């Protein structure tokens, strides 16, 4: 939740961010996981004390034109105070390794159009915007997203 609030300040209406609670976030994620258990992989990064400092979730692409060879990065968040420390990059590398092992040759993800930090992060990791766009509603405000894609390469031996 704090990752969301830090990442989307100034992009998503502040009223939506301020209305977020840990309890509501737990309930929403629990419902999401119960609905989408099949093929979903959750990865966590922990610090030296065993505290979760990052989370990524991936699985089969959920959009139109589904293909068994296409995966989707549903979420990737790092504790806000640790952004830039390499945790996100390490999580994304683990996502790619899991996706490749699951038989995905292509990864897709959605990112808010105005989230320039995230867009730069994914572009540095080899993702490119593919022209697809959609919007989600947050407290009555339409917030646009763009889709990114990256072909997965064979891992070097």
How is the secondary structure organized here?
Blueprint: H1 2-8, H2 14-18, H3 22-35, E1 41-46, E2 52-60, E3 70-78, H4 87-101, E4 106-112, H5 116-124, E5 128-138, E6 141-151
Parallel strand pairs: 3-4
Antiparallel strand pairs: 1-2, 2-3, 4-6, 5-6
Describe this structure in words.
By secondary structure, the chain is of the alpha+beta class. The protein contains five helices and six strands. It has a six-stranded mixed sheet, with helices on one face.
Briefly summarize what is shown.
By secondary structure, this protein is an alpha+beta fold.
- Low-pLDDT runs of 5+ residues are none
- Tally of discrete structural domains: 1
Shape: globular
Mean pLDDT: 85
**Structural class estimated from helices and strands:** alpha+beta
Q: What's the helical proportion of residues?
A: 25-40%
Q: Please state the CA-atom Rg, rounded to the nearest Å.
A: 16 Å
CATH hierarchy, class: Alpha Beta
**Count of alpha/pi helices:** 5
Distance between the termini: 38 Å
What is the name of the CATH architecture?
3-Layer(aba) Sandwich
Determine the CATH superfamily: Gcn5-related N-acetyltransferase (GNAT)
Beta strands, count: 6
Order of helices and strands: HHHEEEHEHEE
Query: What share of the residues does DSSP label as strand, in percent?
Result: 25-35%
The CATH topology corresponds to: Aminopeptidase
List keywords for this structure.
single chain, about 160 residues, alpha+beta, Aminopeptidase, six-stranded mixed sheet, 5 helices, about 30% helix, globular
